[in-house]
Specification:
alpha/beta; D-Maltodextrin-Binding Protein, domain 2; 2 domains; globular
Length: about 300
């Protein structure tokens, strides 16, 4: 695998929003508390929801919370490594990288309908008429990944291809669309013959009336993947970090506007809340990194 694709240089901020300062109480740290978000959806979809979420967290924390929607997964990791983020939502692979190089510590994730941490899946799909009948037929055809550092948008599809004796870099005509939404659009408009499609993007597309199940053929699907962790920077003051972790692990999204709830229920948590999460939940991602021979030390 071409590991260097995971570690392209990136600039940080694509979008920015800030919560109002907390009406009462004193923040334990100087300056704003910065909240990073991975680009798992287009910034146009993320910004309204996560601006409200930043305000909700800020109100509970008693601090001004600033929102940064990063331009890439690596940009968010770099921001935390350079002490420019206090906490952030990472993709599972992004988190594994961030834990190693930026001392990120998973403290929360999104809850499923059973009240426990939610999961999702990655898949490899094509469309009727592409000429691809099985995953073996993908070899030599155009294939859309999302971001090089995306768990379900690159890592798991690459794993699925390799398990079926296809080189995920050279065995397909790979393109990196930049996001799950862009990858889906490439498939929907037949710009590529096959590509990644995760369950969160399917849910989002359904919400926007863009998904027709009969328009796609699933060739491979992953085992359940732990959902995005919300992680804090490891070198924060201990008392502040503990209080931030407690708040992040017990958020109730029913306190947000109805439109935000609809978005989060569709793409993250049908239970509309967060639950505590631990670093060990992402050990299966580390196993996958080992299988694909990804050298995290090169970041």
């Amino acid at each position: 695998m071409n590991v260097s694709k995971f570690f392209a240089a990136a600039v940080l901020v694509a979008g920015f929003g800030a919560s109002a300062a907390h009406a009462a109480g004193t923040c334990e740290i100087d300056g704003p508390v910065r909240f990073g978000v991975e680009p798992y959806e287009s910034s146009q979809r993320l910004m309204p929801v996560y601006t409200d979420l930043a305000k909700l967290i800020g109100d509970k924390l008693g601090c001004k919370v600033e929102l940064y929607v990063a331009t890439s997964y690596n940009a968010e990791i770099e921001a935390m490594r350079n002490d420019k983020l206090e906490f952030g939502q990472f993709g599972p692979l992004g988190y594994v990288l961030a834990h190693q190089v930026a001392h990120a510590e998973a403290v929360a994730t999104f809850a499923g309908e059973n009240g426990k941490s939610a999961t999702y899946y990655a898949s490899i799909v094509t469309w009727p008429g592409s000429g691809i009948k099985s995953i073996a037929d993908i070899k030599g055809h155009s294939f859309a990944y999302s971001d090089p550092s995306s768990t379900s948008g690159h890592l798991f599809p690459a794993f699925g291809l390799r398990k079926n004796n296809i080189d995920p870099d050279n065995g397909v005509k790979a393109i990196y669309a930049g996001s799950h939404t862009a990858s889906f659009e490439a498939l929907r408009n037949h710009k590529v013959e096959a590509g990644e499609l995760n369950s969160e993007e399917i849910a989002s597309a359904k919400q926007h009336n863009l998904y027709d199940q009969n328009a796609y053929v699933t060739l491979w699907q992953s085992e359940p993947i732990p959902l995005d962790p919300i992680a804090v920077r490891g070198n924060l003051p201990a008392a502040f970090k503990a209080r931030l972790a407690q708040i992040l692990g017990s958020l109730d999204f029913r306190e947000l506007p109805e439109a935000d709830q609809k978005f989060l229920a569709a793409v993250q948590t049908p239970a509309l809340k967060t639950v505590p999460q631990s670093d060990s939940a992402y050990n299966q991602i580390r196993d996958l990194v080992s299988t694909l021979h990804i050298d995290l030390a090169k970041l």
